[in-house]
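Replying to the earlier thread about multi-chain prediction with a worked example.

Input:
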Amino acid sequence: MEDLIKRIESIFKVVSKEKGKRDNLWILEVEKESLHAVLSYLKDNESFRHLALISCVDWIENKKFQLSYILWSYQKRQNIIVKIFIDRDKPEFKTVLNLFPQAEVYEREIRELYGVTFEGNPTQFEEFVLEDWEEMPPMRRDFDTYKYSQEKYGDRDSEVQRTNIRKIISDYTDEWRRK
Amino acid sequence: MKEKDYFLDDKPKKLSYSEVWQKFFDWARAKSLWVVSYGTGCGSIEIPPMVTSRFDAERFGVSTVGTPRQADVLIISGYLAVKTLKRVIRVYEQMQSPKYVVGLGACTINGGMYFDSYNTVNLVDLYIPIDVYVAGCMPRPEAILAGFAQLMKKIKEGRADGWKQYIDNLDKYRKNQEKVIKNWKIPNYNW
Amino acid sequence: MWYKILYAFLVTVGGLAYGLLLGGISRKITARIQGRKGPTVFQNYIDLIKLLKKKTAISHGTMFFLAPMFRLLGGVGVLLLVPIVYKSNALSNFSFGGDLIVLMYFMVFGCLGMALGAADSGNPHSAIAPTRGLAQMAGYELPFLVSVIGLAIAHKTVSISSIVASQQGGIFHWNLFQYPFLSIAGIIAMLGMYAAYPFAVVLAPQEIPVGPPTEYSSTFLSFMFTGKSIFGVGKYVLFMDLFLGGATNLVEAFIKTFTLFLIVVFVTNVFPRYRTEQAVKFFWTYPVVIGLIDFIRIFIK
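Result:
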């Protein structure tokens, strides 16, 4: 798969590349203006015709959203992930609906859960999972979900509820990883 | 053998005529419970093994029916998202009284694994009266059958009156429900 | 004269009790075939008692209320018109000369009432099952008519008591052995009437919630239960009178109806289900042809 990466590097400007945890997975980072060109090159010339997922990561320290496009090739049985960074304060991007029709649903999900709007997607403002949601998009990291759950749904006043289970578990796994 | 084994210290009780009649009907209700086949959450994968050949639930009289109009028991199996809660309330109000609710799993008790989720309800008891909780994540079919045995015991003693509490405190339940559900389109009770 | 009313009442109640017991036995046999223990044999009684005491708060129109009554009346009518025990004062009920034709009318009546009631309820699912049921009834009525009319012509009478009378005198005088092909056609039609499994598309519990009684609950459902049980017992007694030689005492009646019941239960548990058009096609070809063989024999004689 390395020759594929060399071919892509010779045509487009690749910001960073990284090999995944298995042999048939590579992760490329490109500039956001050249994403459509990269995707259509991979789809037409290199047989990566299946878009498996569009995923979004919230980098709140760098003030950026990362969008990852996961592609799969049936012929060569290889995965490639193309990721771009967009601005967190004005999260907008263009849709890839013209290349892959299933992107319509993935972008609807990202619009509901992260707040990224995609220009050119006709159904993106419909509800995906949440009904009548009026707060901040809930998967962003500055949305305090524990506080929201306590205020809206209440809890039983018990010893178990008052301990912060997630902090205890994450402290334990951090310590275990450090060893 | 102690001498105490031969004698009884309690006084004789008398039951009035309507109490005997009520006990008879409660016995009949406990022996034939019909469950709505509605799988609300992840626990509904334990319901088909409970009803089929290995852990047979039909020997206790428990069988599934297709419509809430003919059912006695609603099983809330697992977490309840707010979207599901609205539909569950409508199903619960379509059932004819007397009706009972069984809550499976830790998520119905205090939120369970999803206690800090923005979309799932923590205490189901605020919105629908629950008679029996079955602990576990998910409880095995034998545990659910033990829960049904507890429900049958409660019905025979006459203590399973969740539906009466719903009728008495309808305002409180409605206030809790409207706090969580925004688009409230249910016209009136038991339509 | 007044004691005839008392006997009719006793027969109705006894028929209901026997029908519910047969339902429980059928569930138990089905469960044992599937390798599990089933409910007790008295489970249907407990279901009925529980249903009587549920509150009903829905109303959907006049026909909705009347339809369970139709079903119950169809059932009671069938049970009271067949002579259960031949030549008996108590258990001959209201049978008279010519009751075969009236009986065939009553049997359609029950199903029709249910169809009308289900169509009037607000639920779209409860309209699918009666349409299928009526289509299937058009199927099984044909072999049933072939066998009944064949018997009527062969014995030159339209009264069930006379048909029973001409079957007395030993086991080989039964219609089962004298006119075997008519009996086969009749028994296959009987399977259709009970919605036994090759022809169970009416109930189809996986496809439509429970079939015609979808919107009913509590007291209405209990009427339907009773109607179904009584109707079932009435049909068993009718087929016993037509094909198995009637009964001269009550024990013989129980044994013969139980045999017919076992045939239905064993066939139900073994077969998968036909679609409606396949069932109708089956009913109109094989049993009719088999029954017509005996027709030819009767006409030659």
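The first strand of chain A starts at residue 14 and ends at 19.

Feel free to reuse this layout for your own posts.
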